[in-house]
Amino acid sequence: MRAIGLTEFGGPEVLRVIDLPDPVPGPGEVRIRVHAAAVNPTDTMLRAGLARAWFEGRPAPYVPGMDAAGVVDAIGPDTDTPLRPGDPVAAIVQAYGPRGGAYAELIVAPAESVVLIPTGADFPAASTLLMNALTARLALDLLAVPVGGTIAVTGAAGAFGGYTVQLAKSEGLRVFADASAGDRQLVAELGADEVVARGDDVADRFRALAPDGVDAVVDGAAQHTLIVAAVRDGGGLAVVRGWDGPVDRGIHLHKVLVTEMATDHARLLRLRDQASAGVLTLRVADVLPAGQAAQAHRRLAEGGVRGRLVLDLTTF
Question: What pTM, to 2 d.p., does this model score?
Fold first, then answer.
């Protein structure tokens, strides 16, 4: 099979088409013929070698990608799943695992990491759901803000931030969010109750709305130290880049690692159902042939992408 991979870490130019053996599904696993793979910031981190320790000494080539959508191609022996060959599915993929990531014509994933695609979604849209929405789900579960509480979201116009806003609103929370001038309408349409200008002083703007501080912050923009002041004493802060603080005033710091829940099938099914019901909005910025993966990584690094860039794994 063909895949997009790298043999050395570096800039987007290290991504190239490579040939790999077709993977064989084992017990409890499903093989998927990939039609679409979303391009996420975690993919650029893998490519650049920022988390090379996660490979645990395994040799190259490495294949990025944590989000895939396609068609069930084969089911491993002794696999308890209602899925059947030909079913249209989405999967969250462990790119740092021995099987490699989603930028490949064929992938193998645990059956628990695979769900039918949302009703009405095509493959590119379906590929944008699971990793970012599951990260948002985990952040909100860790923060456990009660109904009627207030949460602030940084990076709200992005895929992760947008899902966080929508999930929080669906659970009866009051949501503050940041956005650039060009994204204010988008973020408001996603459901934010109040939208403030983004920037290094965004914590002050959130405090102007909640003088005692918000109950919790989901920091999709990696503001880290700059956003702590927005949280009330004893509140919560969820981060997605492994930041260790410091925080003070009794604030609880939660580091969200989506790979720990990649086989939480019940959570994935719920997210799929929420996308089918319109609670979650699937946003595709553009679809590129798989052979243009380097271009997709450059565009993501330049910023300003709203929704996800998606690679078409049927076209190289």
Answer: 0.97
